[in-house]
Amino acid sequence: MKFLWGVATSSHQIEGGNSANDWWAWELAGNIESGEVSGSATDHRNRFEEDLRNAASLGLNTYRFSIEWSRLEPFEGHWDQEAFDWYGRIISLCEQLGLMPMVTLHHFTLPKWLADKGGVTYEHFADRFKGYVRKVALTFGSRVPLWCTVNEPMLLVIGAYMGAIMPPARSNPKQVAAGHRGMLKAHVVAYDTLHKTITHREGPWKDVPLQVGFAHNMIDFQPLHRFSVREWLMAKVFHRYYNMAWLRAVTGRRQNFGVWFVLPKPRQVWAARGRKTVDFIGINYYMKAYPCWGPQKEEGAQFVQFHNLPLGIRFSRAQDKVSDLGWPIHPRGLGKMIRLVARFGLPIYVTENGVADSRDQFRAQFIQDHVSEIARARSRGADVRGYYHWSLLDNFEWIKGFGPRFGLWAVDYSTKERTPRASTQVYAQIVKRGDPAPDRDVSF
Ligand code: BGC
């Protein structure tokens, strides 16, 4: 099997008209920094054919997208056949264009009816998730080889229950613990349900073994000052919690979602103990960051307060090359994260990697440098099987609104017209060259 080259998207960020989920309600309440709402987004709902053809025109052979639960089940127990049909058309088009689908079942949004009961902290969250996953598996399972149960559970739980940058925007350590437990239970239930339900395979990828994993946001935490012991220690603590806790939990190791004096430990999820509940690990990698103590005086420093402690994260230093969002561009961090994940002995996909760059001044180099890191890691034995660029097209960047431009294709939001950025051609050339490591096909 050839190395997988793809792009990634998520339902709420591109489809438009997703008004039955928690984000929509939150947007309407004025929580998006720019005051925008997702509304018709990129109108992918009507323009998916053009979008998928654009992806295929780069020579890609895979596409990662998410299914919007709130479209399939807008009211509890009420399933919308039209929504199933629409996703069926996406998968058919993938088959026609040779884009192996990787389907994400949960990418930040939840049906509003479920969010109202407590969302991922609701005691029956995993049961409800199971019902949805089973329906999806029965409908599409035979044709989809690659699955992500959840996208970035660590970021979601912190964003929703600590950092207040996602609905329900709480700041409550106990709910952080409950959120991790709920997400881990849901992940395990989805892993088992997919494997149990998908017993028959058909279509162009029927011989590709079913692989279920999750997409994990990873950050290369570094001390702001190289010789500061306190910052070095803080970088370690952030790393252990943010990067490692989920990896350990899904590989059957000790579940440790607590941080001394800051976050209480949730109860263990028994179903995840002592066994692997992933067939691969997806890495979403964007940047490095600097944990720090106390507000920073330096001009331009972004500081995020961590709960009520003077603990924060600086996203960049003056000398860093940064994206439009102020995130430092740091390809070596990807190599580092891959090497770390490779220790778990599982196949790896880079399920997201991209840059907010409206003028397209960094994107081409960004892709080349990150792909080189993959090549290097592969030549040292890491089993990296695919790369998904974030994103195919500009989209609704959550709390930041439509400002940040992550797309290979630029979107004019007034006409919804798509225009390829120059970097599309660079990505197409990389794909054509067959890097990383042209001499090594990955074997499934
Ligand atoms: C998320 C995407 C998001 C991207 C850029 C990832 O954390 O999965 O939904 O658009 O980062 O911020």
Put the structure in a nutshell:
The chain is an alpha/beta fold and 444 residues long. The protein has helices at residues 11-14, 22-28, 44-57, 69-72, 81-97, 112-115, 125-140, 153-161, 173-197, 229-250, 331-342, 363-379, 423-433; strands at 4-8, 62-66, 100-104, 146-151, 211-221, 280-293, 303-306, 309-314, 348-352, 384-390, 409-412, 417-420.
Show the helix and strand layout:
Elements: E1 4-8, H1 11-14, H2 22-28, H3 44-57, E2 62-66, H4 69-72, H5 81-97, E3 100-104, H6 112-115, H7 125-140, E4 146-151, H8 153-161, H9 173-197, E5 211-221, H10 229-250, E6 280-293, E7 303-306, E8 309-314, H11 331-342, E9 348-352, H12 363-379, E10 384-390, E11 409-412, E12 417-420, H13 423-433
Parallel strand pairs: 1-2, 1-10, 2-3, 3-4, 4-5, 5-6, 6-9, 9-10
Antiparallel strand pairs: 6-8, 7-8, 11-12
Helix pairs in contact: 3-5, 7-9, 8-9, 11-12, 12-13
The structure holds beta-D-glucopyranose (BGC).
Question: Overview of this structure, please?
Answer:
By secondary structure, this protein is of the alpha/beta class. Helix content is 36%, strand content 17%. The chain has 13 helices and 12 strands. The chain has helices spanning 11-14, 22-28, 44-57, 69-72, 81-97, 112-115, 125-140, 153-161, 173-197, 229-250, 331-342, 363-379, 423-433, and strands at 4-8, 62-66, 100-104, 146-151, 211-221, 280-293, 303-306, 309-314, 348-352, 384-390, 409-412, 417-420. Strand 11 (409-412) and strand 12 (417-420) form a beta hairpin. The chain is globular and about 55 Å long. The relative contact order is 0.14. It binds beta-D-glucopyranose. Beta-D-glucopyranose (BGC) binds next to loops.
